[in-house]
Amino acid sequence: MRILVVGGGGREHALCWALARDAPAATLFAAPGNPGTAALATNLPIPATALDALVTAARAHRIDLVVVGPEAPLAAGLADRLRAAGHDAFGPSAAAARLESSKAYAKEVMRAAGVPTAPSRTCTDLADALAWIRGRSEPLVVKASGLAGGKGAIVCATREEATAAARAMLADGALGEAGREIVIEDFLEGEELSVLALTDGERIVILPPAQDHKRLGEGDTGPNTGGMGAYTPVSLGTPAFLARVRHEVLEPVLREMTARGSPYQGVLYAGLMVAADGTPYVLEFNCRFGDPETQAVLPGLAPGVSETLIAIAHGNWRPTYDVIPPSRAAVTTVLAARGYPDRPELGAAITLPPIGDEDVLVFHAGTTRGTDGMLRVNGGRVLNITGLGRTVPEAARRSAAACERVEFPGKTWRRDIAWREIRRAGAA
């Protein structure tokens, strides 16, 4: 097979790694890829949002399967374009990807499907938004409805903060088109969990649950980011809990999407808040593999998951299982640039010594290879260091030890990834 992975971050490096592991005879391409994918695939210098060029490249390179990593090309209709041109694609149509590209639409679908989620109000008018805020209890969450690169959700401790956030988006245009429509919702208490499911629109297989660390600082402090690390498995994700997620979240949403004429194919990612009574409330849906969850989930699986992606894209998937269990624990730590997330400093030289440990994987996220051959910082999240082990604490130790060995000026990282699970393991 000839397979093209679209995207250039850590998630796409992990996808290339999994495909190369599971289908070693396949010829891999990545667009645009990064210095990490270059060791596994042929990088094509095409941005992930250049739809015309990607379709042309798929034809020129006789691509059998395209796996689309980021949300923006899916929302723009890349999967539709590829299928129309005769190429199999793993990823939802633009209509189905609205579950992520429009939080307002996702709320509408959840209400129609009876899926547990926070009470909310969708607003395009500032006066309407402020009136709703005045009538709600604190705290509140203000979200840009559109794609905002992980910066569109603001947790507001007070109504005054929520008012300022709504005004910034609706009146000041702080997030551009993404914030022209906003969703204001009640704050939910509990513990967050990421559940990723592979689906052809009817059948579902759930991957091992993961937990992402969004805050920049240790102890979950500081500003929100795109994610500073993730781990799997999570003890909250028991078989009974995953059965609830299947029956109360995933199946109703898929039925509703099919009823709307937008059947969903690809990865359906449910960002959940697990309440004290065990109810899985949906915070958001993503229409693709998570980042950095993918860098933990895929290495934690036994070889073979790529066969599922291929079968779903080809339309001949017949799963005989409901859940893919983890074979190992995996902890991914993000090494970020100085100034991340607001103003990451680019260009610093990276010293990446040989790790020398088969239980540690290094995924490139925001790196570039200069004309001098030096590896340099080229993004806010620079490298993802995944440790593997029999247990989450063991995997976390391996990830942290490898992070210590990587050097670049301004290296920023959290040393407490998976702290909740480690604490639970210590109490057991």
Strand order of the largest sheet: 3-2-1-4-5
CATH class categorisation of the largest domain = Alpha Beta
Provide mean pLDDT, rounded.
96
What oligomeric state is this?
single chain
Structural account:
The protein is of the alpha+beta class. The chain folds into three domains: 2-91, Rossmann fold (3-Layer(aba) Sandwich); 119-186, Dna Ligase, domain 1, CATH 3.30.1490; 191-427, D-amino Acid Aminotransferase, Chain A, domain 1 (2-Layer Sandwich), CATH 3.30.470. Helix content is 30%, strand content 25%. The strands form six sheets. Strands 3-2-1-4-5 form a five-stranded parallel beta sheet, with helices on both faces. The model has no long low-confidence stretch (mean pLDDT 96).
